[in-house]
DNA sequence: ATGAAAGCGCTAACAG
DNA sequence: CTGTTAGCGCTTTCAT
């Protein structure tokens, strides 16, 4: 900037004024400065600008589990979109479900003085963020609640969705429903299992452990679990799958066996309408969830000081697959 | 940092030394500093640290077309992964195929002094980046070549892949092959069309404009184009689709018509193995492409000064779908 | 082994 | 309208 000032024969402050489109600069000078800027290939150092306290970095941070997963990349896309509307850039990082790493990344983002944080939490304890929050960095949690920290949170109605899904199967006369889930160590899974249990209980059906497969982490695992259950003495007449990766594995295994056992799966997914059998998904609007969270965050960044809110978004049953 | 120094009763420089794990600090003092850091909730300002010239920001920038698209989110995920191995964070932004916006974002990233740039270019002219490149910001282009700028580039063998795809159909006896593409304004589409034409030409088959559908931007458009071609006087006996969104639309329309016309499509996609008919994809390794580009970028960041390279990655034909 | 002082590139506050 | 000066929070000399 000093170079530009010298080149244009003005003071550094005038350059600053021109760069920032401040009023009260003679046209003539401004043009000279702009010319020098172009000639010298000057680009303002945004970091230095930010250093003066009270300035914003025009950057927000997003922590998700896995950027390659469509659910999370949708969230990232919406976050980037909303950020852009606020002339802000987005730093995205994946925690890979590792609380340790999540904390590390969060600290790193804070040391970069991001204007705000959007978090799909992997860990259970976010108390370590309290100093940052108190120092004025807004934080919004997404898809899962925070631990040990009061903050805005946007969740899905996992419990209600699971209840509706199981109820649909019960209404179609099913009594033996196989339930497949990833891991109860994940909040959303716990909620969904809870909802399923509630629906069974209120229909007066006992929760049969043999009809529950835990630790199903991928489609292959789901296929194996389905095969196991279907060859057991009293096989289920329907499956309730607790996420879309599992649903895909279930459908694949059913197709392989030419079985037409009914399926309800939590989460919609791309191409679900082209799957080889009719089934039902518990759907929701991922973009809306992300948008709600991002909007909340920017409201906070803009100075909103109200008490932290928790928003719960609805789910809906939708028919999918080729009939 | 001044506060910490005062609290610990040492100089600011000692705090700096402790924070940076520099040697030559008494255990005792170091512990006192660490205690103060914890108590005051101090977090080093990474931006200020970076301000001293010669320091790196430990941040790279990635420009893609659309973060919500699995192809790009895979690239972003790999970029973030490689970045993490270098203790670097990733700023991701979508250009939405808008050269204007791409340029704006790139300038913005440069003003944040990123250590390097990974670009899937939307525009045709990247000469405006030359000053930055000369000032030492490495740039690697991905999936499409740069315009007006010599830089490392990682591409796919679009031409060869398309040739192989069309050749496969010709070998199965097809003479009338319907070709569906998005827009020749996109580099990859031009290359793929070129490859298809070459394969037809070397088989002595004239390129029939009526068998080519341009401007197919989504599955619905693809379905409509397929419907149109199949009800024309001399319908094609096979389709070659130039991207996976189009392929999905083609498959859906064929299923609707209970037609078993053969299909070859460029790009593999998730769940392609569960599509309702056999078909062939021109597949490639997106992760490898992204990894190659990111590795190249970090080599440059580490000081590699060799002449810019262009790497072209191979494609392979793979059978997909339920038989 | 520790500290004092200068300076990174910019903006805020105040003069002229 | 324009310029001077003092910092922002940290690291890098260079003394001690």
UniProtKB/TrEMBL annotation, chains A, B:
The segment(s) forming the HTH lacI-type domain are: 1-53
InterPro entries referenced in this protein's UniProt entry, alphabetically: HTH_LacI, Lambda_DNA-bd_dom_sf, Peripla_BP/Lac1_sug-bd_dom, Peripla_BP_I
Annotated GO molecular function terms are: DNA-binding transcription factor activity; transcription cis-regulatory region binding
What domain of life is recorded for the organism? Bacteria
Gene3D superfamilies xrefs: 3.40.50.2300, lambda repressor-like DNA-binding domains
Q: Which residues constitute the signal peptide according to the record?
A: none
**Transmembrane intervals:** none
Transmembrane in keyword set: no
Q: Which CDD domains match?
A: HTH_LacI (cd01392), PBP1_LacI_sugar_binding-like (cd06267)
UniProt KW Aminoacyl-tRNA synthetase keyword = no
Q: Which UniProt keywords apply?
A: DNA-binding, Transcription, Transcription regulation
Which SUPFAM superfamilies does the protein's record reference?
A: lambda repressor-like DNA-binding domains, Periplasmic binding protein-like I
Q: Specify the protein name.
A: LacI family transcriptional regulator
């Amino acid at each position: 900037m000093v170079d530009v000032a010298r080149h244009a024969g003005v003071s550094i402050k005038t350059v600053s004024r021109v760069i920032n489109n401040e009023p009260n600069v003679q046209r003539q000078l401004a043009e000279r400065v702009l010319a020098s800027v172009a000639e010298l290939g000057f680009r303002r150092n945004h970091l230095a600008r930010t250093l003066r306290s009270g300035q914003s970095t025009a950057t927000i941070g997003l922590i998700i589990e896995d950027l390659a997963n469509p659910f999370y990349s949708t969230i990232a896309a919406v976050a980037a979109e909303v950020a852009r509307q606020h002339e802000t850039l987005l730093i995205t990082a994946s925690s890979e479900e590792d609380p340790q790493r999540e904390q590390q990344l969060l600290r790193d983002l804070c040391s970069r003085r991001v204007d705000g944080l959007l978090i799909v939490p992997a860990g259970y304890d976010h108390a370590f963020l309290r100093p940052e929050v108190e120092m004025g960095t807004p934080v919004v949690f997404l898809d899962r609640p925070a631990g040990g920290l009061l903050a805005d949170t946007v969740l899905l109605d996992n419990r209600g969705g699971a209840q509706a899904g199981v109820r649909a199967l019960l209404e179609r006369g099913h009594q033996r429903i196989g339930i497949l889930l990833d891991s109860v160590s994940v909040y959303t899974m716990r909620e969904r299992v809870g909802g399923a249990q509630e629906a069974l209980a209120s229909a007066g059906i006992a929760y049969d452990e043999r009809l529950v497969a835990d630790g199903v982490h991928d489609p292959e695992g789901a296929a194996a679990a389905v095969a196991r259950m279907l060859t057991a003495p009293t096989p289920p007449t329907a499956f309730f799958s607790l996420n879309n990766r599992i649903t895909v594995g279930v459908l694949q295994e059913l197709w392989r066996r030419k079985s037409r056992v009914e399926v309800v799966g939590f989460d919609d997914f791309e191409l679900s309408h082209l799957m080889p059998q009719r089934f039902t998904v518990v759907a929701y609007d991922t973009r809306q969830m992300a948008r709600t969270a991002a909007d909340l965050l920017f409201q906070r960044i803009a100075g909103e000081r109200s008490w932290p809110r928790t928003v719960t978004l609805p789910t809906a049953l939708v028919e999918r697959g080729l009939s």
